[in-house]
Design brief:
By secondary structure, the chain is mainly beta. Among the domains are: about 1-45, no CATH class; about 320-350 and about 355-505; about 525-625. Helix content is about 10%, strand content about 20%. It has seven helices and 32 strands. Strands 16-17-20-21-22-23-24-25-26-28-30-31-32 form a 13-stranded parallel sheet. Strands 3-4-7-8-9-10-11-12 form an eight-stranded parallel sheet, with no helix packed on it. Strand 31, helix 7 and strand 32 (about 620-625) form a beta-alpha-beta unit. It is globular, with a radius of gyration of 31 Å.
Length: about 625
């Protein structure tokens, strides 16, 4: 787009330059011109194969180059079109005002930063540099140490793409607003940048405004005139002189992600709420808000394509928006409401007063909104870090018929009922993180979760009993209990006969009578030791003899495996030993003959002693990691 290589066909408006450009790029990927890669942080990027790079250099010849060292720029011909280099190579250190750059026909310039990040690029150098590059289409100073941009930026009348991300720039010159061909402006992580130019609305060709993580106080007024905007990552609501939230109504083509900040600056909330078109953005996929109180229109049903919502660290908010109205919402994560009391049955006209000097967040019918079947598409629901939440009583029509995963973490006061009808629920995770509720939230009847296959209960320090009638969970395959020291018995009727995987701590293993004979399908057991002083494990007749897989995890003082305890496990096929730093003896003669796989992870003494050792060579599959 920036090089004007993507031509709009002039057909349907739904097929814009972005879509065409994506198709071109996908075609190049399919031809292996670009190859996808993933980092350790699961972020994706693309590379070019070395052979393709060689081909590119052969074809582009003298029209593009990359300067990272002390090449003499004067030797490069004036016909260079595309250049990436370290800025310091473009001027003499002893004569910063004397600019010797002669490649005046550049179309692309990418700054690779500076060698000395302590000294910002001199403004005069930038000024002279830009005056010589009036034909630029692409200009990037990303990661450069610069405090301001010279007025001469306004001379680049053909500029389509400008990237100032990760710079220390404090303000943008007003002259930037005459760049009538500018399509993309990136200001990501410009923490020092507090305002945009007043004349931003003159950038009539602007399609992408990336200001995620900038330090903006407010947006300038008349942003509504930027009607070609496709991507606007952040909209900061202004006060008297700044942009009003109603201006979003005119930006009909916004897509991707949008974060609205400083909603508390909305003075006339009634006027904003009545304008449903403010957020009538069919192509929005990710939406976030920063405010002290959610306006009524946040859950408007015009958000028809929103599939994921996360509300995080809204500690000053006193209500939740009517998210139940979002018909396509699949994933909802609510975190950091540290004063929340979820109470859906407060009588009309009764208000709850703050307690313990904290403002209480009340969640009533407004959470569900006016939908006949709220949360009809919701699949994942996560509540975390809600220290005052005490009760959850669901609206009758909120059946959560598609909810598959429910996670509740660090909600220590929650003792009420879960919603009464969860027909699709397959996974529940409860983690009190040692703050501990007296019990986990109650289900009126376990039969309301006929598909529940996974139940995890962690660090409920004050919990005294497991849920009643667990035996009725006929689909439950996986049960994990850890950090619940007050639990001493199984519920009446025991555990589901279908249980196949059990993960528990050593404390739970010893304290509870598990009645192994009632669990004929139990095949996989994992025992976590944490800070136990135990030096030998497992004890004789401690584990069920029918299991095929055993995990021994985080026994910090464990020194050897018990020969007698292992010998009795006559069906054992897989043994995994993980994070046992002092374990140095396997008692390999005690391994059952059925053992076919031994996995040793993060056990340095074992790896040192047994790696390539003949003592365990009879085991077909041995791995160390």
């Amino acid at each position: 787009m920036a090089e004007n290589l993507v031509k709009h066909s002039g057909g349907s408006r739904s097929r814009g330059m972005e879509e065409l450009g994506n198709e071109y790029f996908d075609d190049l990927v399919s031809f292996s011109f670009f190859q996808p890669k993933t980092t350790h942080w699961n972020t994706s990027y693309f590379i070019m194969h070395d052979l393709v790079i060689d081909l590119d250099r052969a074809v582009s010849g003298k029209y593009s180059c990359l300067l990272e060292h002390n090449e003499d720029i004067d030797k490069f011909e004036k016909k260079i079109r595309h250049l990436g280099c370290v800025m310091e190579l473009l001027y003499h250190n002893d004569e910063k005002s004397s600019f010797n750059f002669e490649a005046t026909h550049l179309r692309t310039f990418l700054s690779l930063g500076e060698v000395d990040q302590r000294v910002p690029i001199p403004l005069e150098v930038l000024h002279n540099f830009l005056l010589k590059l009036k034909g630029l289409r692409v200009l990037s100073f990303r990661y450069s140490h610069m405090l301001e941009l010279p007025d001469s930026i306004g001379k680049l009348k053909y500029l389509h793409y400008l990237d100032l991300s990760y710079t220390n720039i404090v303000k943008l010159p007003e002259s930037i607003t005459v760049l009538y061909n500018l399509q993309t402006l990136k200001l990501e992580k410009c923490f020092e940048l507090q305002t945009l130019p007043e004349g931003m609305h003159h950038l009539i060709s602007l399609r992408h405004l990336i200001i995620r993580g900038a330090g903006l106080v407010e947006m300038p007024s008349q942003m509504s005139k930027l009607t070609k905007l496709q991507i606007l990552t952040t909209f900061v609501v202004g006060k008297e002189s700044g942009a009003k939230i109603e201006e979003l109504a005119e930006l009909a083509d916004l897509r991707g992600e949008l974060s609205i900040e400083k909603l508390e600056n909305v003075v006339n909330i009634t006027r904003a709420s009545n304008q449903a078109s403010v957020l009538y953005k069919k192509q929005l996929e990710k939406f976030s808000l920063e405010c002290t109180k959610f306006p009524n229109w946040v859950g408007n049903d015009s958000f028809s394509n929103i599939v994921q919502v996360k509300l995080d660290e809204c500690q000053r908010c006193s209500n939740l928006p009517p998210l139940g109205q979002l018909a396509s919402l699949k994933h909802l994560d609510i975190s950091g409401f540290n004063s929340v009391v979820l109470d859906y049955c407060v009588p009309h006209g009764i208000s709850m007063e703050p307690h313990n000097s904290c403002q209480v967040v009340m969640v009533g019918a407004e959470f569900y909104g006016n939908s006949k079947e709220p949360f009809s598409s919701l699949e994942t629901l996560i509540f975390s870090y809600m220290s005052s939440w005490e009760e959850w009583e669901s609206k009758d029509s909120a059946k959560y018929r598609n909810l598959k995963t429910l996670k509740i973490r660090l909600c220590p006061k929650l003792i009420g009922n879960l919603p009464p009808f969860l027909p699709s629920l397959t996974e529940i995770k409860i983690d009190a993180h040692w703050q501990g509720a007296l019990t986990i939230p109650r289900l009126p009847c376990w039969t309301c979760c006929p598909k529940l296959t996974y139940l995890e209960i962690m660090d409920c320090f004050k919990m005294k009993w497991l849920p009643v009638r667990m035996a009725s969970l006929l689909s439950l395959k996986y049960l994990s209990i850890y950090g619940c020291p007050l639990i001493e018995t199984l519920p009446e009727g025991g555990l589901p006969i279908c249980l196949s995987t059990l993960k528990i701590s050593y404390h739970e293993l010893l304290r509870i009578n598990w009645n192994w004979q009632t669990l004929p399908h139990l095949k996989h057991v994992e025992i976590e030791g944490d800070k136990e002083d135990l030096e030998s494990f497992p004890e004789e007749r401690l584990l069920p003899t029918t299991i095929t897989s055993l995990g021994i995890v985080r026994f910090s003082k464990l020194k050897c495996l018990s020969k007698n305890g292992l010998t009795q496990l006559t069906s054992l096929q897989t043994l995994e030993i993980r994070s046992c730093p002092e374990l140095d003896t396997l008692s390999e003669e005690g391994f059952p003959t059925s053992l076919s796989s031994l996995n040793i992870i993060d056990c340095p003494l074992l790896e040192k002693k047994y790696y390539c050792s003949s003592k365990i060579s009879h085991i077909p599959d041995v791995t160390f990691d």
